[in-house]
Amino acid sequence: MEMTLIVLIGAVAAVLANMNIAVFNDGLRPIVSEHTEGRLTRRDLAFTAFAMSFGLVIGFGIPFTLTASIILIHSILLGTDIIGLMTPKNKWGTPVAAIIGGAYGAGLLVGLEGFVKLFEKLPLNFLPAMGQVGAPVVVTFMAFPALAVAFQFSVKKGLVTFIVSAIVRQLAVFVNENKFLTFSDTAVTLNQEGMALITGMIFLLVFAMKEKKEEGTSIDLAAIFSDKVAKIRKNVVFFMIIGGLIAAATNLAIMAGDPISLNLLADGKETDAGIAAAARALGFIPLIASTAIATGVYSPVGFTLIFVVGLFSPNVWVALLAGVIVIFLEVMLLASIARFLDKYPGIRNSGENIRNAMSKLLEVALLIGGANAANAIAPGFGFFFIAGTYLLNEAAGRPIVRMAVGPVGAILVGIIANILVVMGLMTIPK
């Protein structure tokens, strides 16, 4: 079943890109629209897609996939964007895109299993140490609403949000330790990070809804781009298919929508991963809704809520059905969502701040996690290598995105450590 799901996801996503219906890379949607409206050739579109997505697949998607042995959605869907847009949109090009996309998905899954077996045969198996890459992410994720509040409103309000979130977290720890909450004589354990996250999101939403719309600034995007909305609705069946498939794959813990929920899922914390995925989805709704309405090109994962239903569903079949229903409702409500965001500009603007806050948090957390993992593989040398790699990457103009420096650096340390062990220049850490 796992292989079938991944192959189908790869095939359908490649077809959606090939037919200019949906692409995963947010930055590609306006460019695909330029092509469909005749202002950009297919050749230029293909080269642009490759330039925008290939580096992210190699430097972002694959490293995270390897650290947790769970496929990060970026690994597969950024690749299918390239495959779909580089194959001609005609009667033979579309089937070819489906075949290559499916084979690419299968290759990711088989390659992942092969990598795990390969690590076990190395002189120094550094795969267990790679689990430390995501450890700081799980704990620090609760701070992102406070950072988003600071970006959008003020540092003072961000600080208040952070302090209250921290207090709520410690209260949850106190309640758990003293077993104050019980149900049928069984102690109920609160997730302290989850409680802090919910508290921060409440502060963010309250501040955002208080931000009033200025007189004469209302723009009904859904009305202006009614033909684009109609195009997306016309293809709703495609979105329902891939939405169900991705939700099912997420339920089976073979796929995750972001590095945070991926690391939680790798630790077996499905509920925590679902909460993290829901918080992330909130930040993506304004971006995906506005770009979809303006371009007529949707995202194969919709508002990313399909990951949430996949994680909270009791089994794979419920997840499959829930994914189909959720993405259908998203498409049908697209115009209404756009009008709501226009009514509350604070919420619309918060999307960008939420994403920026998450990116900043991930950059710091993954650098710390990568350094810890590297140092566990090669004590002393690991810290030196990660620090040097980060600084040299900055000096070179960041050829590797900041949040990937930690995971990529840890993998490189693992490779170097194995070479040193074989050469007799390093002993295996105990």
TrEMBL record:
<feature type="transmembrane region" description="Helical">
    <location>
        <begin position="158"/>
        <end position="175"/>
    </location>
</feature>
<dbReference type="InterPro" id="IPR019733">
    <property type="entry name" value="Uncharacterised_YhfT"/>
</dbReference>
<feature type="transmembrane region" description="Helical">
    <location>
        <begin position="404"/>
        <end position="428"/>
    </location>
</feature>
<dbReference type="Pfam" id="PF10797">
    <property type="entry name" value="YhfT"/>
</dbReference>
<feature type="transmembrane region" description="Helical">
    <location>
        <begin position="68"/>
        <end position="85"/>
    </location>
</feature>
<feature type="transmembrane region" description="Helical">
    <location>
        <begin position="277"/>
        <end position="309"/>
    </location>
</feature>
<keyword id="KW-1133">Transmembrane helix</keyword>
<feature type="transmembrane region" description="Helical">
    <location>
        <begin position="236"/>
        <end position="257"/>
    </location>
</feature>
<feature type="transmembrane region" description="Helical">
    <location>
        <begin position="187"/>
        <end position="208"/>
    </location>
</feature>
<feature type="transmembrane region" description="Helical">
    <location>
        <begin position="316"/>
        <end position="341"/>
    </location>
</feature>
<keyword id="KW-0812">Transmembrane</keyword>
<keyword id="KW-0472">Membrane</keyword>
<feature type="transmembrane region" description="Helical">
    <location>
        <begin position="132"/>
        <end position="151"/>
    </location>
</feature>
<feature type="transmembrane region" description="Helical">
    <location>
        <begin position="6"/>
        <end position="24"/>
    </location>
</feature>
<feature type="transmembrane region" description="Helical">
    <location>
        <begin position="361"/>
        <end position="392"/>
    </location>
</feature>
<feature type="transmembrane region" description="Helical">
    <location>
        <begin position="92"/>
        <end position="112"/>
    </location>
</feature>
<protein>
    <submittedName>
        <fullName>Uncharacterized protein</fullName>
    </submittedName>
</protein>
